[in-house]
Amino acid sequence: MQTELNKVVAALAEFYARESFLFEHDLGERALTHRLAVYLETQFSGWQVDCDYDRLGERTLRLPRGSIVSTDDHLAKSIYPDIVVHQREIPNNLLAIEVRKASNHQPPEHDRHKLQALTDPHLWFAYWIGIFLVLGKNSVVPDVYVGGVIDAPMAAWLAERLRDAGLGVG
Fold first, then answer.
1. Measuring CA to CA, which residue among 163, 170, 100 is closest to residue 135?
2. Structure pTM?
3. For 31-48, what is each residue's pLDDT tens digit?
4. CA distances from 1 to 5, 13, 17, 26, 155 (A)
């Protein structure tokens, strides 16, 4: 898992080195998400990196009935992770990433619940790792989800790696 998280750190470092314009001009989360996905793509050879991808093979990615996660579609069932690293054809799901700007003052529960569901091993579309990233102008605050819950030791490890890369808080 550390190998994959190191690749995320490398992508974030390149993203911050090259995309300061996005922060200086206060562009939206979708612009940030797309540009971060570009740098993730260079780190994950042999994987596809997609934004707002709602499929698992031929099936639409849907949450089970009674899920606590609300969605944006008219059926209130489909979900669209901000960024996924996966193999579309197999399907093989490696990373699901939710991105928020630090200036977004909406409660983060929706994104957190989505990552809990996306990494839940009891659901048929489980991603191995979920990452919640709060992107500030010069820093990143992460959480790591594994098995449907926050993995505090991995989140602390990732935060330390981000600090080492000059992107950490505190």
1. 100
2. 0.89
3. 999 999 999 999 999 999
4. 6, 19, 25, 32, 11
